[in-house]
Design goal:
alpha+beta; five-stranded mixed sheet; 19 strands; 37% helix; elongated; binds adenosine-5'-diphosphate; binds magnesium ion; Hsp90_N; Chaperone protein HtpG
Length: 570
């Protein structure tokens, strides 16, 4: 043993620590779930590393997690025989904010305690949550494959500093010892610990063990202490959740599992659990969240996490980008393949045919799930749309094969209501089409108000024809890829001719001809005046209140798009 060295936490760590302790006090028991989750990740990582190097786990091959306690010392220990950490890794992972998500979380902080507490509820708090219940934490670890004398002890009271020490004889893996605060001694009760493991960690695929309870005799009050021949009970189900039959799994099981893989505090909105057998076999368990992650984590398409690739029960890597298209990046879950080789790399995944099949199968599952929700529970679907609609719209342009499925899932604001909520589906619209109406009409604009009040709507409004109001940034781009739905053309009211004639009462047409004649002189003057500004000046019947409006040729870029490009300097 060397003398302990003192290190300072990275400044941000201190900030996260304080926030976690204050914001999550009312959910303090989640610390156990977080530490077990880390232990499980560490076992996953060792199992993966041992594929290429079996010696790494040979001496103690049964991967497991052990929870024990010492009632006199007021300590609770969470131990795993997983991958462990080297000295550098301890500094990197525990002493700094290693996760980019956490760093971006910090950028989001407003300084307003209440708002920040809500924010922290939206991201996984991880290791530091242990400081909610502990006033000192001792972490001892040795990385698999490193010599027995390269163990590391990390210790901190969570107040700005930690100490590091090299140890001579440490078992492979990691032990986290929590020195519980005086008011948190409930976590020394075996029944309480067992209850929490069942509630939050039953789905963990490795055995979570606790010291066997030796009868209910009060004289055996020290049953949790480390003794020489300690006997253990497995407390959790200890098999990968997605491999268990659906009939055996309760909603709570799926919910707890979702929280483990997604770091989301909210329950998922829905999930689909399927086994596919055929030219290849795999299991998929896919979750749709109920809330979009906070803005900063969401805006970019770069970092996508939460869809895990397993191969025959072995965790391989986070592979959202390889297993789902970008427009489904809100989905998390597990794909467990029976057929892929264990030594796949990201590059191989990129070109593998089986992976391409899995990707298209998984996309279809998600879209089917969304369609089912939209049929079964309108409110629930509306909740989904409000959170993720704008992301789903990207699919119309990106996923040609599923265009029709996607179009069915779209929701719009429309002239059918005085509300800007996006609630109208294309099927709703078609159901309300007027006799003789052939197209689905829409208008794009910068805002709902601008769309709603556009003079270009007047003629259709006067004839009771509904118009979809497309006002999101992405709409103009998306609608360019959607020319048709259910055999009906989608037409912009700002482009070319809208066939008012077919919609109008037959009697109108005489009157119109007269009006056109009467305006001939005026038209001529306007054409000369505006010669270098417009292509043509016509009498139009689309207006009922405004004297004039600008129209685009059928193939012109929409006005809204032209404005955007101009702003961008084109
Ligand atoms: P997360 O698990 O989301 O990455 P945590 O704060 O829970 O965030 O953990 C931070 C990092 O510390 C982990 O990513 C991992 O590298 C390391 N770590 C934590 N606990 C363990 C453990 N039991 N074994 C090995 N590494 C661990
Ligand atoms: Mg963690």
């Amino acid at each position: 043993t060397t003398t302990p060295e003192t290190h300072k936490f990275q400044a941000e760590v201190q900030q996260v620590l304080q926030l976690v302790i204050h914001s999550l006090y009312s959910h303090k028991e989640i610390f156990l779930r977080e530490l077990i989750s880390n232990a499980s990740d560490a076992c996953d990582k060792l199992r993966f590393a041992a594929i290429g190097n079996p010696a790494l786990s040979q001496d103690d091959a049964e991967l497991r997690i052990e929870i024990s306690f010492d009632k006199e010392a007021h300590t609770l220990s969470i131990r795993d025989n997983g991958i462990g950490m080297s000295r550098d890794e301890v500094i990197e992972n525990i002493g700094t904010i290693a996760r980019s998500g956490t760093r971006r979380f910090l950028e989001q902080l407003s300084g307003d305690q209440r708002k920040d507490a809500q924010l922290i509820g939206q991201f996984g708090v991880g290791f530091y949550s242990a400081f909610i219940v502990a006033d000192k934490i001792t972490l001892t670890t040795r990385r698999a494959g490193d010599a027995a004398d390269s163990g590391v002890r990390w210790e901190s009271t969570g107040t700005g500093e930690y100490t590091l020490e090299t140890l001579e004889s440490v078992a492979r893996g990691t032990t986290v010892v929590l020195h519980l605060k005086d008011e948190e001694l409930e976590f020394l009760q075996p029944w309480r610990l067992r209850e929490l493991i069942s509630k939050y960690s039953d789905h963990i695929g490795f055995p979570i063990r606790m010291p066997k309870e030796i009868g209910h005799d009060e004289t055996e009050a020290n049953e949790g202490e480390e003794k020489l021949a300690l006997e253990w009970d497995t407390v959790n189900h200890a098999s990968a959740l997605w491999t268990r039959p659906k009939s055996e799994l309760k909603d709570e099981d799926y919910q707890a599992f979702y929280k483990h893989i997604s770091h989301d505090f909210n329950d998922p909105l829905a999930w689909a659990h399927n086994r596919v057998e055929g030219n290849q076999s795999y299991t998929s368990l896919l979750f749709v969240p109920s809330k979009a992650p906070m803005d900063a984590m969401w805006s970019g398409r770069e970092e996508r996490k939460g869809l895990k690739l397993y191969i025959r029960r072995v965790f391989i890597m986070d592979a959202s980008e390889q297993l789902l298209p970008a427009y489904l990046r809100f989905v998390s879950g597990v794909i467990d393949s029976d057929d892929l080789p264990l030594n796949v790399s990201r590059e191989i995944l990129q070109q593998n045919k089986l992976v391409a099949q899995i990707k298209s199968g998984a996309s279809k599952r998600v879209l089917d799930l969304l369609e089912k929700i939209s049929n079964d529970d309108k409110d629930k679907y509306q909740g989904f749309w409000n959170e993720f609609g704008n992301v789903l719209k990207e699919g119309v342009a990106e996923d040609f094969a599923n265009k029709d499925k996607l179009a069915k899932l779209l929701r719009f604001a429309s002239t059918s209501s005085e509300d800007k909520a996006q609630t109208v589906s294309l099927d709703d619209y078609i159901g309300r089409m007027k006799p003789g109406q052939e197209a689905i009409y829409y208008i794009t604009a910068d805002s709902w108000l601008a769309a709603r009040n556009s003079p270009q709507l007047e003629a259709l409004k006067a004839r009771g024809v509904e118009v979809l109001l497309l006002v999101d940034r992405i709409d103009e781009w998306m609608i360019g890829y959607l020319n048709e739905y259910a055999g009906k053309k989608l037409k912009s009211v700002a482009k070319g001719d809208i066939e008012i004639d077919k919609l109008a009462d037959a009697g109108d047409s005489e009157k119109r001809k007269e009006a056109e004649k009467a305006a001939e002189g005026l038209l001529g003057k306007l054409k000369t005046l505006l010669a270098d500004k417009v292509r043509d000046v016509r009498v139009s019947h689309r207006l009922t209140e405004s004297p004039s409006c600008l129209v685009l040729d059928e193939h012109d870029m929409a006005a809204h798009m032209q404005r955007l490009l101009k702003q961008a300097g084109h």
